[in-house]
Amino acid sequence: MTESKKFNRAATVILSMIVIVTLLPIALIIIASFTDETALLRDGYSFFPKKWSTDAYYYIIKQGVTIVRAYGVSFFVTIVGTAASVLITMMLAYPMSRRSFKYRDILSFFVFFTMLFNGGIVPSYIMWTRFFHIKNTIWALLIPNYLVTAFNVILVKNYYSNNVPEALIEAAQIDGAGEITTFYKIMVPLARPVIATVSLFTGLCYWNDWTNGLYYVDNEKLYSIQLLLLKIMNNIQGLKANSNVAMLGTGSVELPSTSVRMAMAFIGILPILFIYPFVQKHLVRGVVIGAVKG
Fold first, then answer.
1. Are 265 and 29 a contacting pair, CB within 8 Å?
2. Measured between alpha carbons, how far is 292 from 289 in angstroms, rounded to an integer?
3. Closest CA to 95 of 82, 81, 106, 84
4. What is the mean pLDDT of residues 230-253?
5. Assign residue 176 a region: left if phi > 0, alpha if psi is -120 to 50, beta otherwise?
6. Residues 6+ apart with CB under 8 A from 4
7. How far apart are CA 134 and CA 45, in angstroms?
8. 119-145 in b/e burial notation, b at 16+ Cβ within 10 A?
9. CB 182, CB 170: distance < 8 Å
10. What is the pLDDT of residues 157-211, one digit of tens each?
C-alpha cells in the first residue's frame, strides 16, 4: 500500500470521527426533545432516556397556525433579505475593487469604519422608528443590521480583486460594454463561489434573527419563527411559575419547558440542515479566496 493511500485512509477515519462528534450535540437535542420532562429533569440529558414523550411537539403543534405563519415570515424575510443583501453587497464591492475608481479609498474607509464603530442600540432604535417609521412593518425584519455588512462587502471586494483580471474588464470596455454590463455579464458570473458564501452567511443571520423582531415588532402576524419560539418559551416559563404557585402544597403541574426548548431548537435549525449541503462546496472556496488581502 502506498503512502498516499495510507494517508487517505487515516484522514478518512479521523475526519469521520470528527463528523460523528460534531453531530452528537444535534442528536442529543433531538433525543431530548422526545424525552419525558420529568425523566429529563430527574436523569438529565441522555442518549438513551428511560421514558419517551411527544408532549413537547404536541404543545408546539397546538400553536400550529401561528407557527406556520411564523415560518412563512421567516422564509420570506430570509429569501428577500438575502437576495437584496447579496445584490447590494456585490454592487458596493465592485467599485471598491476597481483601481481606476477615483473614490475607492474613501469608500473603503467608510465601509471598514462601520466594522469598528456603530451608533448603538438606542440611537439605532430612534432612527429606525422615528425617522424611517419601520416599526411593526416587514421592513423592520429586513433592513436593520443585516442588509449590508462590512465583512461581506470586504469579502466580495477581495474576491473581485484576486480573481477577476483587470485586463478582462478592459477588454469588455473596449468591446463597448458599460459599467452595468460589465458588472452583470462578467463580475457576477465569475463570483459564484463568493455569492454562495455571502448568501449562506446572510441567510443564516436572517433566519436566526430574533432581535429585530424583539426591538421593532409588536404585531404577532409579523413574528418570525425564532421570535415566536422565544415567546412560546417565555409563556411556558410564566405558566410554569403560575402553576407552581397555584398548586403549592398539592403537587405542581410540570410543563414540558426543557423538552420544548430542545424541540424548538430542532425546529429552528431544520431548514438550515437541508440547505447547507447544497452550498457547502462553494463555501470554503469563497471564504479562502475572498479573505486573502487584496
1. yes
2. 6
3. 106
4. 60
5. left
6. none
7. 42
8. eeeeeeeeebeeeeebbeebbbbbbbb
9. no
10. 888 888 888 888 888 888 887 888 888 888 888 888 888 888 888 988 998 888 9
